[in-house]
Amino acid sequence: MQPRTHVTLEDVARAADVSLATASRALNGMRVTPHLRDRVLAAAAQLAYTPNAHARALAGASHRTVGVICHDVTDPYFAAIAGGVMRVAGANDLLVMLASTFRDPEREIAYVSMLRAERAPAILLIGSGFEDTRWERAMEAELKPYLDGGGKVAVVSRHRSLKVDSVLPENRAGAAAMARALLELGHRRFAVLSGPRALTTVIDRLGGFRDELTAAGVPLDAAHVVEGPFTRDGGYQAMTELLDRGLDATCVFALTDVMAIGAYAALRDRGLCVPGDVSVAGFDDIPIVRDLTPPLTTVALPLREIGEKVMELALTENTGSRRRIVRLTGEVVLRASTAKVGS
């Protein structure tokens, strides 16, 4: 049989009808059931699969390589955090390998498995965890032997289940502060553009915003919370859905700035003006939002500092018995995208 070119691990997993993580573990000699290992090895042989040559070359220098797994490195939120990671890594003569999961839990686990196989000394997980017990068990099964073997793990925004050193942006408190600021502008009718409810970041931001409104006697109707991907297109689609229903809000709060950017586009396409027809607010303060027309009101997180802190956690020894947690607060920045009601 002639070897196929560019056969990937995904091809092997598909042919064996197993997950990416299982395929990676089987091919790297890690623990899987004999039946599954045989299926994976048979599929790899049939497809003439060979491990990525570049990754294997890096394995020889793996003691100087840090693996960074994020949801989407093209998202300015993750890019800014990665910039902070790379600054500290560079100062310590470390190479950074970046991987994007695109919020696929199985792909995330598979990348952790592969970094274990490459003997990376540290793994950073950047971005929200998943409220999914199956994911939690699978991730713990990957990380425990890695940690027991001396590997270092540090994470951003994953305080639900992973018992590792963490940098935690104060998402709930930041969203609550945004609610207070918008209430002070006179808004009482809100809509929210939400990301997937399984993400811990969504749970915290939506919960903080809703709880603060409730405390002020302002209900947030479930019908006014529209879910979409944490992307510009997700924000566009969610905003369009709100408009199609007949928007009954003076202010729209997007749980990320990139969703707010999509909301701007959807409103513009309908001939509506921000903030003349509706105010819009976001969360994160990615650099581009200051240059929007109008500039976006948002919760500003210290994104580069988040990256620096999580890298520093991975590089410094934890001498205590408990995991270290670094909490970083956000600050509401009022810009021209939100106006006082009646002004």
How would you describe this protein?
- By secondary structure, the chain is an alpha/beta fold.
- The protein has twelve helices and twelve strands.
- A six-stranded parallel sheet has the order 2-1-3-4-5-11, with helices on both faces.
- Helix 9 (200-215) links the parallel strand 6 and strand 7 (225-227).
- Helix 1 (9-16) packs across helix 3 (34-47), helix 5 crosses helix 12 and helix 8 packs parallel to helix 9.
- Mean pLDDT is 88; it is low at 53-62.
Topology as a string of helices (H) and strands (E): HHHHEHEHEHEEHEHEHEHEEHEE
CATH superfamily of the largest domain: Response regulator
CATH topology-level fold name of the largest domain: Rossmann fold
| Global morphology | globular
Termini separation: 74 Å
Please give the CATH class of the largest domain.
Alpha Beta
GO molecular function, one term: transcription cis-regulatory region binding
Protein name: Transcriptional regulator, LacI family
Domain HTH lacI-type: 7-60
Keywords: DNA-binding, Transcription, Transcription regulation
How are the SSEs ordered, and which strands pair?
Elements: H1 9-16, H2 20-27, H3 34-47, H4 53-59, E1 65-70, H5 76-91, E2 95-100, H6 105-117, E3 122-126, H7 133-148, E4 152-156, E5 165-169, H8 171-184, E6 190-194, H9 200-215, E7 225-227, H10 232-245, E8 251-254, H11 257-269, E9 279-281, E10 298-300, H12 303-315, E11 325-328, E12 331-333
Parallel strand pairs: 1-2, 1-3, 3-4, 4-5, 5-11, 6-7, 6-8, 8-9
Antiparallel strand pairs: 10-12
